[in-house]
Amino acid sequence: MPRSRRPSKQFLMLLDALAAPSQHGHHGYELMKRTGLQSGTLYPLLMRMAEQGLVEAEWREPVQLGRPARHAYQLTAAGVALARNVAEAGAAQAPLQEALA
Known about the structure:
The chain is mainly alpha-helical. It has helices at about 10-20, 30-35, 40-50, 75-100, and strands spanning about 55-60, 70-75. It contains four helices and two strands.
């Protein structure tokens, strides 16, 4: 029987950051600044999310000459659906948590 695991706090922060609107996708450095995650946590999470079909990564050519190409990360349709479900579940739990506080 498969074990149902709750998403980690880091996973949820990254999912929230990826759900933010972006015209050109999100870059790793931007995601590190937005979430506060270190590269040793961020990139394994991104790879796991890509394996699960939640995120897609695409190489982008540099905007400025002399800068390296870099990955741009975006949520897939499944990732967007998960982000919505998590946001709705969080909104539903907030009044309960406030009442218990």
